[in-house]
Amino acid sequence: MQKSVRYNEGHALYLAFLARKEGTKRGFLSKKAAEASRWHEKWFALYQNVLFYFEGEQSGRPAGMYLLEGCSCERTPAPPRTSAGPAGARDALDKQYYFTVLFGHEGQKPLELRCEEEQAGKEWMEAIHQASYADILIEREVLMQKYIHLVQIVETEKIAANQLRHQLEDQDTEIERLKSEIVALNKTKERMRPYHSHQEDEDPDIKKIKKVQSFMRGWLCRRKWKTIVQDYICSPHAESMRKRNQIVFTMVEAETEYVHQLYILVNGFLRPLRMAASSKKPPISHDDVSSIFLNSETIMFLHEIFHQGLKARLANWPTLVLADLFDILLPMLNIYQEFVRNHQYSLQVLANCKQNRDFDKLLKQYEANPACEGRMLETFLTYPMFQIPRYIITLHELLAHTPHEHVERKSLEFAKSKLEELSRVMHDEVSDTENIRKNLAIERMIVEGCDILLDTSQTFIRQGAMRNSNTIIVKQERGSSHSGWTLLLSGPDMLYSSEEDRSVW
Fold first, then answer.
1. Binning pLDDT at 50, 70 and 90, where does residue 456 land?
2. Residue 474's pLDDT is what?
């Protein structure tokens, strides 16, 4: 019967060396001994999904290691003190941060750790949570996709360079051939010059005939070239490229307009209101300014960078490559989730602030700026809500006119799928947030409150008049084993809930 597991000690020592030098998290922690309730201070180093501990910071050989793949980490309270001791020492132990690492397989005892500072303990827990080989594989897959994309671009550039090189060589050969022909013709012309002079003197109509023949040859060449150009202009490929370029030009114009709108929002409203909030008699607080505008300034900086990239691509027209720009833009679009989730709340805060006469007067002065063109602040706050759907529509149209063998088609399809996924997530979050806000608004209208409306599994369905009541709010319950309906009636009717009488109302 096998009593132990063999492992490569040299490999483990090498990983321990890397952990000491390049570990994600390193520092002193107290480790609870397995045989007794005693704590020993060790120096720990986390590398990828392996946790090493050493007797001291200068120790070259690890005292032990733990494999963290599939583990979880949670905070634990300080253990009770049974032995008597100085009050200061007991208080210092109680204030330490205790947490436990739970392994995903049976037979492995939990690892109990503690540190002196709460912030350091939270950082250790977060680092252990993220110590997963699966996350490393996902990151590697993303890097491989980018690498493959760059390799495709390099190969395309190499093919184009080779083609240009061959063309230059052919042109050099043709130039040499033409030079030799010119030299031969000049020699022939020198030999036949007396004969031509005599013929021109004797027959002056030959010159006119040659001019007519030269004119006809030039006219035939120009006609043939015009036919070739017109055939290409009328071809499906040329039409597709024209539509694709037009989509890109329209996208750049829309991005220019969007950046201008964000510039007005930030410089015409956000920054002046921040200054007003810091005045002696502020018409609005800094918290309200943050609630109304949230991360608008960050969104403006992001799209200024994206707009500069688009303009740089136009400088390389007619070769327009946009996939790498979307690869840079996609990881940063998560800031839209927070803005979209906060949009309705920001409009509510703005409506409440308008009740203040000083703020309303100041806001009307800002809105009277000619750059606003008569638009209100609510209009500028709504523009970012439609930017992600606009990108999805643009990419859909761009893919419709991008050949399947195009070098950036897969990257554009990947960008469109990611934007559609982000749009769905934002739509679900906005729906949930608006449902909770509507329920809370209804609950605040009831004098003594209503605990039923505080359940987050309730969904707002309908509000209107019914019989002798002024209003009716119908709620559907989710997340339980049986779906039910709840009716809240204002007026002489009482709170009523029944699933059997659904046909009545």
1. low
2. 43
Residues 413, 98: Cα–Cα separation, whole Å: 47
- 């109990």: which residue's tokens? 112
Is this structure's pTM higher than 0.70?
no
> Do the bridges between strand 458-466 and strand 469-477 make them parallel or antiparallel, or are there none, so unpaired?
antiparallel
Contact assessment for residue 279 and residue 368, using Cβ atoms and an 8 Å cutoff = no
Nearest alpha carbon to residue 261 among 349, 363, 385? 385
Question: What ranges do the domains of the chain cover?
Answer: 9-131, 133-186, 239-437, 453-497
Report, at the CATH architecture level, how domain 9-131 is classified: Roll (2.30)
The region of weakest confidence among 133-147, 268-282, 419-433 is 419-433
3-class secondary-structure state, position 358: helix
Q: Give the CATH architecture of domain 239-437.
A: Up-down Bundle (1.20)
Residue predicted with more confidence, 249 or 407: 249
Q: Which residue has the tokens 């990611």?
A: 418
Give the SS3 label for residue 69. Answer: coil
What is each CA distance from 175 to 158, 164, 165, 166, 171, in whole angstroms?
25, 16, 15, 14, 6
286: its two tokens: 């800094």
- Please list the residues that pair with 72 across neighbouring strands: 102
| Cα angle value 178/182/184 (rounded, 5°) | 115
Please say whether the beta carbons of 255 and 394 come within 8 A: no
At 219 the pLDDT is 84
Residue 295: which H helix or E strand, with range?
Answer: none
CB atoms < 10 A from the CB of 94, how many?
A: 13
